[in-house]
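Can't paste images in this forum, so I'm doing it all in text. The chain is below; anyone willing to post the predicted structure tokens underneath?
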Amino acid sequence: MLPMQMRHPSSTTTSSKDGGAANPAAAASPSREVVVAEAAVDVCLAAAAMAGAALLAWWAVAFHPSNAQLWMVPLGLVLGCTPALVCLALHFSDHHHSRAPPPPLGPGKGSAAAPPPLVVVVVDK
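Text version of the structure:
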């Protein structure tokens, strides 16, 4: 592997003991790069939320009595509320690494079944 090249987090390692089959323990645990990247995203989101809260607090203390610098209010709300929405979106997304893939469907169920027969509709005028 090249020094600057990163592997995809969902790639699995093979074991020579079991004939080259994928190692389920290695596939279930996220790699160190993924954990570090997720922690960096969490730190950035927390910093943005704290910056928004600090901006709103500064406006409330210094400028609210005179209703000056009103641009700080929407900016503080955006900075303060957006990280919470992003965290919720990341938490409920389907691309979460800790979720196991759904089990395969049996014959005759869902997309694993044979396609429905084609129907030909002839309209005679």
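Confidence is low (pLDDT under 50) at residues 1-21. DSSP finds three helices and no strands in the chain.
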